[in-house]
Amino acid sequence: LVWVTLDLFFRVHMTGDILHGEDGRIFKNIGNSFKSVKQFINPAGISILLYILFAAPLIGFGFTVGITENIAIPNFIMEVLQKSTAFKVIGVVAVAALLIVGFLFLFSLHAVLLSGMTPKEAKKYSIHLMKKNRKRFVVTMLVVIALVFVVRNGISLGLNAALQAGLDPVAGSLPVNFVERDYSDPSLWFILSEEDMMIMNYRVGCAFAVMEGGYLDMFLALLGSSFIMFVFTKLYI
User: Fold this and answer.
1) Can you spell out the DSSP letters for 173-233?
2) pTM of the entire structure?
3) What would the pLDDT profile of 112-170 be if each residue is shown by its tens digit?
4) What are phi and psi for residue 66, nearest 5 degrees?
């Protein structure tokens, strides 16, 4: 629950403040996020949280949080589903039902956090909004998600290609029969040969490329999800 509060509630409050022209202070919105928790301590509110935590990541639709975004159906369950036609049908129906519920109730979280509705009221209001503006919502979100996907992958691929272009020539010039040295001993750093320096620099470059790829992807994912949340909140407001 703490993770949902800091990961999701916070983003909703922050984007709401920005779109309303208010001061989006971090600590103020963290406080507002924790205050909002009590609004979900009821059956309707718990159902919203359960969908966010478990259903959304399983079907790949709706808001998710980092702690459960990568959960998946266990392999042994998938094997049972694939072997039985009846279970396949049940699985398809269940996924379809979750998709419909998720789509209709997608504005519920914003209605609770930004408009102060009860979760039950928020669900009814979300259905009303979706029925009234479903075409505009679907088109807008598809365009935004596609844009985020293209920009994120374009930056990642471009930077990776640049790093690869810089490292490949060095890799081709490395000696074949080089004797491994223990570069962790600082006393050797002052007596390294030009060949040693070349290999050490190459290894540092490779390590940077690997770490940069991971951190860059995490940073771009954060920016992308924040932009999607911003647009979605704008559609609600």
Assistant:
1) HS-TTPPP--TT-GGGGGG--HHHHHHHHHHHHHHHHHHHHHHHHHHHHHHHHHHHHHHHH
2) 0.76
3) 999 989 999 999 999 999 988 888 888 998 999 999 999 888 888 887 777 777 777 77
4) -60, -35
